[in-house]
Structure formats: structure tokens, C-alpha cells
Specification:
The protein is of the alpha+beta class. It is built from seven helices and twelve strands.
Length: about 250
């Protein structure tokens, strides 16, 4: 099966104009997969085909968020790498370049040796085009081991920073013994934003804790500090001066 290639200039408008034709060719590929003996024996194949057809209808109506949901459901019911290509196109048409790149990468990985060189080159070009629309965010924290949350979700900062869709993001940084900081970062396509967040240390005090039971976890305001030793010796603990709760817990 020869796929229809999308235009070399992949502006969002041009991409949307060609989506229906591309999706219909990919639909044929997916339907052929569903008709193979192994898939035919799977009752989920029929449901997958229905979700795929609904996705095509949403593409025709330019309802790309709904199309993504239907494509994903079809993939869950009857996984085939070709559907990841459709998901990537729908994300790209909706302006979600980061999600599009992830789906295209998955398509190449899962397709593997089944993909002809021309097809792999084409999808690699799509990835390059969508990556040009992304912004990059690099955050350095002090202390280095601070916990970083982006829009409320924990993230780790890879070397070179995070690739994100343009827009405004909420950043929170926290670390034991330090004041938490929150800030907002606006990202623009094609730009790299570097942010340094230095946390201020909390005033601290030292406690001595004695516990008759060993291996008890000591938690200060939700932050695990240590475990008790042999149950006899007093253990020193450094805690924030504004400590409100000290919790001791052990399974059983």
C-alpha cells in the first residue's frame, strides 16, 4: 500500500486541508490489518474499526480533539503502529506539536523494519517540522535536588531542558528545609527559556527523638526524615522552626 504524502510545507492550514485524504489512505491500511486472521478472531477488532471510522468523521468536521480520542481507543482495542501516525496528524492539526512528536516517534519505533525508507524519511521530516514549533524550558534549582512541578505535575529536568508547546506554565519548586516558590513562565515557539530558582532556607531547630520501636519512619509535615534505630538510643533530628506535625509510622 502506497501512502499519500502530505505537502512539504506543513503549515497548520495546509496540514488540515490534506488530513481527510491522508486519513482515508491510512484507514485502508488499518482495515486490512483488522481483516487478517489473527485480528478477525479478536472480538475487539470490530469495536476498533468503529472507533476508527468515528475518528475519520471527526477529522472531516475538524474536531481534532475528538478524533484523537477515537484513534486512541481504536489503538487500545487493536494496536497497530499505523494508528499512531493518525494520532500524530490529529495532534498536529490541533496545534499540539509536542504530542504530535511523541506519536510520530512511537510510530517509527513500533513500525520498525516494516516501514520503507521513504516512509521513515517522510515521518522524520514531520517530526522535525513539529519540533520547530516547540519551545524549550530549562530550570536550574538551588538546592540541586529540589522537587520541580510543572502545572502541578512532578517533572525531571533532562539535559538541554524540556520541549513544550508554547504557552504559559505554572512552576513550583520545593525542597525539605526551604521555603517553596511558585512562578509563571511564558514560552514562545522556537525559543529557549532558562530559569534559575533559588530557594530560601527555613530557620531550623534540633530535636532529640526516643522511640522504643525500631525502624519507625519519622515524617515532618509530610516529608520523610529518617527511621528510628535500635529503639534505645535517642536520635537527633533537624526540623524547620515552623514544624506543625511530627508523624511516626510503621507497617503493622
Amino acid at each position: 500500500l502506497r501512502f499519500v504524502r502530505s505537502p512539504k510545507s506543513l503549515s497548520r492550514r495546509a496540514l488540515i486541508m490534506h488530513l481527510s485524504e491522508i486519513f482515508r489512505f491510512t484507514r485502508l491500511f488499518f482495515v486490512l490489518f483488522l481483516l487478517c486472521p489473527r485480528a478477525r478472531a479478536d472480538s475487539a477488532a470490530e469495536d476498533a474499526a468503529r472507533h476508527f471510522e468515528r475518528a475519520i468523521l471527526h477529522v472531516d468536521a475538524k474536531e481534532f480533539d475528538l478524533a484523537v480520542s477515537e484513534f486512541q481507543r481504536a489503538y487500545e482495542l487493536s494496536p497497530h503502529y499505523s494508528v499512531q501516525y493518525n494520532i500524530g496528524l490529529a495532534h498536529a492539526a490541533a496545534g499540539r506539536s509536542r504530542a504530535a512528536v511523541q506519536s510520530f516517534d512511537r510510530y517509527l519505533t513500533e513500525g520498525g523494519a516494516d516501514l520503507p525508507a521513504e516512509r521513515r524519511t517522510h515521518v522524520t521530516a514531520l517530526i522535525r517540522t513539529e519540533r520547530m514549533k516547540l519551545a524549550r524550558l530549562s530550570i536550574e534549582t538551588q538546592p540541586k535536588d529540589a522537587i520541580l512541578l510543572l502545572d502541578g505535575k512532578p517533572v525531571s529536568m533532562p539535559e538541554g531542558g524540556l520541549e513544550l508547546d508554547p504557552g504559559e506554565y505554572g512552576v513550583r519548586v520545593r525542597a525539605p528545609g526551604h521555603h517553596e516558590r511558585s512562578l509563571s513562565v511564558a514560552l514562545r515557539a522556537g525559543e529557549t527559556s532558562k530559569v534559575l530558582v533559588a530557594l530560601t532556607e527555613l530557620a531550623s531547630r534540633q530535636l532529640e527523638l526516643s522511640c522504643a520501636v525500631p525502624d519507625v519512619e519519622v515524617v515532618a509535615d509530610g516529608q520523610a526524615l529518617a527511621k528510628t534505630a535500635d529503639g534505645v538510643r535517642a536520635m537527633p533530628l533537624v526540623v524547620p522552626s515552623n514544624l506543625s506535625e511530627l508523624l511516626l509510622r510503621r507497617a503493622g
